[in-house]
Amino acid sequence: MEKPATRIDWTANSCRLLKATAAEFEKTRPFAGLSIGTGIHLEPKTVALLMTLRAGGARLICTGNLNSTQPVTVEFLRAQGITVFATQTTDPAAHARSLEAVLAEKPDLLLDNGGDLFAIAADRLYANLLGGTEETTSGRTRLLPMRETLAMPILVINDSPIKQFAENKHAVGQSLFESYMRFTNRSTNGKRVTVFGYGACGKGTAACFRNAFSTVSVVDIDPVTSLEAHLDGFATPLREQAIRSADVIATVTGFPGIVTAADLPLIKDGAVLMNGGHFPHEIDVAAFRSHSDVVDIDRYEADFIDTFHLKDGRSFHVLGGGHMANLAGPRPLGNSVESMDIGFTLQARCLERVAKRGVGAESCIVPVPADIDAMVASAYLDLAR
Ligand SMILES: NC(=O)c1ccc[n+]([C@@H]2O[C@H](COP(=O)([O-])OP(=O)(O)OC[C@H]3O[C@@H](n4cnc5c(N)ncnc54)[C@H](O)[C@@H]3O)[C@@H](O)[C@H]2O)c1
User: Fold this and answer.
1) What was the pLDDT predicted at 60?
2) Which atom from ligand 1 is nearest to the alpha carbon of 197?
3) Predicted confidence (pLDDT) per residue in 230-264, tens digit
4) 165-327: CATH, from 3.30.1330.10, 3.30.420.130, 3.40.50.720, 3.10.20.70
5) Phi, psi at 295, each rounded to 5°
6) Lower CB density within 10 Å: C or N end of the chain?
7) Per-residue pLDDT tens for 125-136?
């Protein structure tokens, strides 16, 4: 018999590790009597994680990240009786209201992505907050200065070696490459691509464009990392030359102001600029919009592309307004299901550890415990054999 199925069903069925974890949690109920506040992209893969936490007995209060909330996902979660405070928005004030609404419920645990929730909690600590998890590099950087104030277990998923290679390296590279194709429908063959940042995400991005027959240059502020890129066979020109020569510029550093209005004289005619870093501040799109050298902007509304025309006749394109390209634009799918299945299983196991008081305040902003890494790796390999 034929029956309609959705992307959420497809994703849930593809997340085999989470499915197995949910089946176990239904018996062990590690979150019985506890609430979890979540601030992470509301898209189908997150649903698989949230349903796993709920299978473990958690009451969920959810919001998303800036610009990546998918209305169908929100509808689905609400239909499951889960509390969601989120709208699809690029307005930081609207997003801040959703974060406040989650924290007003005083969840026992927080699952954060980018440090949005813990940063507010650090200002207004409440007694029942046990700790939680932070998903990403940018969140770790943001929360580290608040370590003494937070003084509770916060396990950083990003700092698991598994997350580094499974998601940041392999999946971000693939999905940024896929996003370039999806947004532009342009080829990569023979194109000169400059990747800013040669951390895990940059490594995968550089490799994927090279595998797609582009000539790839890497710019990293750290000379040791630049040497690694050089020895990996990438060109490592100085920053100015790397911008001048690029047909495509991809930023994946986690830091603001990587390409700014000061670079307008350098940008090659026809260049495509895209960001894969967590926050939309790596390419200073707002400064481009108001700069006196920019005489016209074409907004390809349905395609999420802005074309900036410069006084001297050059033009260049920005994808997704400088937001994470793999979660922006038409039909954004984000990282591969398998990579998120692994990363979100680390999330579920780390939250379980905090819920069971298996880690203390000394574990504030520390990597995933090694035994959890080993358990998740073995479980994935068992499924793959
Ligand atoms: N798009 C996604 O799906 C996704 C997934 C995971 C992580 N991220 C984000 O991607 C970003 C990078 O993550 P990562 O794990 O690769 O980080 P990382 O810290 O491993 O690497 C960042 C690299 O950027 C370099 N860098 C810093 N400032 C620079 C500058 N001004 N110019 C050139 N290079 C500079 C650093 O030296 C470092 O090598 C973060 O914002 C992270 O949150 C995005």
Assistant:
1) 98
2) 24
3) 999 999 999 999 999 999 999 999 999 999 999 99
4) 3.40.50.720
5) -100, -20
6) N
7) 999 999 999 998
Two structure tokens written together for 145? 């200065």
**DSSP for residue 32:** T
Ligand 1 neighbourhood includes 137 CB (under 6 angstroms): yes
- CATH architecture observed for domain 7-152+336-384: 3-Layer(aba) Sandwich (3.40)
Distance 51 CA to ligand 1 centre (A): 30
* Ligand 1 centroid to residue 215 C-alpha, Å: 21
Q: Is the pLDDT of residue 316 over 90?
A: yes
pTM of this prediction? 0.86
Indicate which residue's Cα is closest to atom 27 of ligand 1.
253
Cα distances (angstroms) measured from residue 171 to each of 5, 29, 111, 174, 233: 25, 31, 21, 5, 21
Query: Is 251's C-beta closer than 6 angstroms to any atom of ligand 1?
Result: no
Model confidence at 87: pLDDT above 90:
no
> Whole-angstrom Cα distance, residue 91 to residue 89?
5
